[in-house]
UniProtKB/TrEMBL annotation, chain A:
<keyword id="KW-0812">Transmembrane</keyword>
<protein>
    <submittedName>
        <fullName>Nucleoside ABC transporter membrane protein</fullName>
    </submittedName>
</protein>
<dbReference type="GO" id="GO:0005886">
    <property type="term" value="C:plasma membrane"/>
</dbReference>
<keyword id="KW-1003">Cell membrane</keyword>
<feature type="transmembrane region" description="Helical">
    <location>
        <begin position="135"/>
        <end position="161"/>
    </location>
</feature>
<feature type="transmembrane region" description="Helical">
    <location>
        <begin position="64"/>
        <end position="84"/>
    </location>
</feature>
<feature type="transmembrane region" description="Helical">
    <location>
        <begin position="271"/>
        <end position="289"/>
    </location>
</feature>
<dbReference type="GO" id="GO:0022857">
    <property type="term" value="F:transmembrane transporter activity"/>
</dbReference>
<feature type="transmembrane region" description="Helical">
    <location>
        <begin position="6"/>
        <end position="25"/>
    </location>
</feature>
TrEMBL record, chain B:
<feature type="domain" description="ABC transporter substrate-binding protein PnrA-like">
    <location>
        <begin position="25"/>
        <end position="309"/>
    </location>
</feature>
<keyword id="KW-0732">Signal</keyword>
<protein>
    <submittedName>
        <fullName>Nucleoside-binding protein</fullName>
    </submittedName>
</protein>
<feature type="signal peptide">
    <location>
        <begin position="1"/>
        <end position="22"/>
    </location>
</feature>
<dbReference type="GO" id="GO:0005886">
    <property type="term" value="C:plasma membrane"/>
</dbReference>
<dbReference type="Pfam" id="PF02608">
    <property type="entry name" value="Bmp"/>
</dbReference>
<dbReference type="InterPro" id="IPR003760">
    <property type="entry name" value="PnrA-like"/>
</dbReference>
<dbReference type="InterPro" id="IPR052910">
    <property type="entry name" value="ABC-Purine-Binding"/>
</dbReference>
Length: 306, 357
């Protein structure tokens, strides 16, 4: 065993990369759930975003266009869910599960011609001076733009929910849709926008996997990150900064366990492999011991006549 | 998304669904563990399938199913293929061993060929390639190319085939560089680009400047390219799109001659259960072009090593070799027998770490 082989700077830098898809998808789902909608289709939207982003960036040669396409693809797929749950008043759990299955199949079909292709490289930020600072430069100033976008998005969502009128309306819709409706807010309108925001975020998270983290397209390559994002939102008590903490914890321990394996630590591989799940849940559950709770209207169907 | 690609995909899906029409044709089925576009293991098996089609033309019809999980689901997929009227079925991954044997019992008239396993039956042959011969050449190059003296190795599952590869690469890396060390990460998958990329990145972060992989995707090579100054090898297929660096050479599985041979045997009615283990000599294991990223003298000696293995003058497991715990395995000049190699469950002396249970 040789723990000195683990370079903490590189470890932190790569945990940020590993955490970003999860963070993006979770923040999106957090907004959806704060508006009172439970969308279990995160995995399906992520994988659809992954192939949309991959295909478009291969065709156009521009990763940036690819990321935009991924957001579009995710949002478009989420519209299907929005239609089913907000207009056809279908059960949200069933619709969400169906969305995941549909997204997995659709992405596999769309991806037939894109297996084994190299996507155009996404440039890493390289700020002269700042990126050269020892330790901090590598950790803070030498990632791709999407990673910073993820952190910024968390901050924006936090401010929006906590300090703005828009956030107040969104939360009102999520807490008590009848009251919000009585006040004259469009419950369905707010929810559709929230669902599309969640879809775009999940799509972006998926494209981050297929364009930056791997980078390659394969069927089912999101490998359950969408489900982890769903769990993360609950364990983080629907609070943006806790989502960030949870995502970094999960990403960090996933990377750390591979590092420990490579360093030859004498813990069975199976325990190392399950450690990210256990540690993340334990930390977030102990954090949520305060009085935070789910949005009161979460998962309930709204119709103006009721 | 181009429409043509969507249509190709749809046609492919339809093609799988429609059964065989002509009964006089010999029907050959293939079960793949990954997608045919993995650029590695499954890709090469599919190239073998296409070679069969080209060779026999209208005489045969081939069907395949990709990304079949190892385990219970494999049994269902193989059964379905047998029910569809396949005369010969190739199951192309280690984990299909028991499913293949189980299904073969139910279909005594169908011939089965299982890759890399060790269980035969009246109608089940096994075939594999001596990949460890290629690993020896890889180790030879890796040991001399590394500056940090750390070689990273991404293992899939701790099965004899993979352990054999690690040992062979290690022995030959140590021969040319007594200071070299192997860091081994087990990915527990044959094909999961995200996991493979993470594993490669971790190994690189811990100082490895040569990455050997026993998983099937090109993701580790992509990670090596990203890191710069890190080299790797094509696994199972040439992975030529990463030439000349990071991919400096490769092990190429060439199944086509064997597949053609066996299909011919079924057509002729001379098929018999057998156990085949071919190497560089027979052409089942190929060494991909060694690129200019490798200095000439290393390249020359690597080719020499390859030739001596092919001619039978040299066996990669020639004593003296001790096991990891220091106990003697092969005496001076003694050559490992196939039985031990097929069941290999130990590291040789010098490798650190334990094989997961």
């Amino acid at each position: 065993m040789d723990l000195s082989a683990i370079n903490p700077v590189l470890l932190i830098a790569s945990l940020m990369v590993a955490a970003t898809p999860l963070l993006l998808a979770s923040v999106g789902e957090l907004v959806v759930e704060r508006s009172g909608v439970l969308n279990l289709g995160v995995e399906g939207m992520m994988i659809t975003g992954a192939i949309c982003g991959f295909a478009i960036s291969v065709e156009t040669g521009s990763p940036f266009t690819g990321f935009l396409a991924a957001m579009g693809g995710g949002a478009l797929l989420s519209l299907l869910f929005a239609f089913l749950t907000q207009f056809a008043l279908a059960n949200q759990v069933a619709s969400g599960l169906a969305l995941t299955l549909f997204g997995l199949g659709l992405s596999a079909l769309m991806g037939q011609g894109y297996v084994g292709i190299k996507p155009p490289a996404t440039p890493r930020l390289d700020i002269p001076l700042l990126s050269d600072i020892p330790v901090l430069g590598r950790i803070l100033f030498s990632h791709d733009l999407v990673l910073y976008f993820g952190i910024a998005l968390t901050a924006v969502v936090w401010v929006l929910l906590k300090y703005t009128r828009v956030g107040l309306i969104l939360r009102a819709v999520g807490e008590n849709h009848d009251a919000a409706h009585a006040l004259g807010f469009s419950v369905v309108g707010v929810r559709v926008v929230a669902i599309m925001f969640g879809g775009a975020c999940a799509g972006l998270g998926g494209a981050y996997i297929s364009l930056i983290r791997v980078p390659q397209w394969t069927e089912g390559m999101t490998a359950g990150i969408g489900w982890i994002a769903l769990a993360l939102v609950v364990f983080a008590s629907w609070k943006p900064w806790r989502v960030l903490l949870g995502a970094y914890l999960f990403g960090g321990i996933s990377v750390l366990q591979l590092n420990l394996q490579a360093a030859g630590i004498a813990i069975p591989v199976e325990y190392l492999a399950m450690s990210p799940y256990i540690v993340t849940i334990l930390v977030l559950v102990s954090l949520s011991a305060d009085k935070s709770r789910a949005p009161a209207s979460l998962g309930r169907i709204f119709h103006a006549s009721q | 998304m181009r429409l043509s690609k969507i249509l190709t995909g749809a046609t492919l899906a339809l093609g799988l669904a429609t059964g065989a029409a002509a009964q006089d044709k010999t029907k050959v089925g293939f079960i793949y563990v990954g997608p045919i576009g993995d650029g590695g293991w499954t890709y090469e098996h599919d190239k073998g399938r296409l070679a069969v089609e080209e060779h026999f033309g209208d005489q045969v019809e081939t069907v395949y199913q990709e990304s079949v999980p190892e385990g219970a689901d494999a049994e269902r997929a193989i059964t379905q293929m047998a029910l569809q009227g396949a005369d010969l079925i190739f199951t192309t991954s280690f984990g299909y061993m028991d499913p293949t044997i189980n299904v073969a019992k139910k279909f005594p008239d169908v011939k089965f060929e299982h890759a890399t396993g060790y269980k035969q039956a009246e109608n089940v042959s096994t075939y594999s390639a001596r990949f460890y011969e290629g690993r020896a050449v890889q180790g030879h190059i890796a040991g001399q190319m590394t500056d940090s003296n750390i070689v990273g190795y991404i293992g899939s599952y701790p099965i004899p085939e993979v352990i054999r590869g690690i040992n062979s690469a290690f022995i030959h890396a140590r021969k040319v560089n007594p200071d070299v060390e192997f860091k081994i990460v087990w990915a527990y998958t044959w094909f999961d680009p995200a996991k493979e990329a993470d594993a490669a990145s971790v190994l690189i972060e811990q100082g490895a400047d040569v990455i050997l992989q026993h998983t099937d995707s090109t993701a580790p090579l992509a990670a090596a390219e990203n890191a710069g100054d890190v080299i790797g090898f094509g696994q199972a297929s040439d992975m030529a799109e990463y030439k000349p660096s990071p991919r400096v050479s490769s092990i190429i599985d060439n199944w086509a001659p064997y597949y053609i041979d066996r299909v011919q045997a079924v057509i002729d009615g001379t098929w018999e259960s057998q156990d085949i283990w071919h190497g560089i000599d027979e052409g089942m294991v190929g060494i991909g072009e060694i690129t200019d990223a490798v200095p000439d003298d290393i390249k020359a000696s690597a080719l020499e090593l390859k030739d001596s293995i092919a001619s039978g003058d040299y066996h990669p497991f020639t004593g003296p070799i001790n096991k990891q715990d220091g106990s003697a395995w092969l005496a001076e000049g003694e050559v490992a027998d196939d039985g031990t190699l097929l069941g290999m469950d130990f590291y040789v002396e010098g490798i650190e770490g334990k094989i997961p249970e």
